[in-house]
């Protein structure tokens, strides 16, 4: 459960990061960043 919450949290953060970089909210970018966060 905690792990799932961490993924949700990092997903939210990567969305904000993507917006900050000027990307539109694209599912494949979010998914790619989420996959990176799974390495932790």
Task: Provide a concise account of the structure shown.
The chain is mainly alpha-helical and 40 residues long.
Would you spell out the secondary-structure blueprint of this structure?
Blueprint: H1 2-20, H2 27-37
Helix pairs in contact: 1-2
Helix tally?
Answer: 2
Radius of gyration: 10 Å
How many strand units?
0
Percent helix range: over 70%
Mean pLDDT: 63
Q: Biggest β-sheet: count, sense, barrel?
A: none
Percent of residues in β-strands: under 5%
Listing every helix as H and every strand as E from the N terminus to the C terminus, the arrangement reads HH
Q: Judging from the principal axes of the Cα atoms, what is the shape?
A: flat
CA(first)-CA(last) distance: 16 Å
Features:
40 residues; mainly alpha
Question: Explain this structure to me?
Answer:
This protein is mostly helical. The chain has one domain. It is built from two helices and no strands. α1 packs across α2. The model has no long low-confidence stretch (mean pLDDT 63).
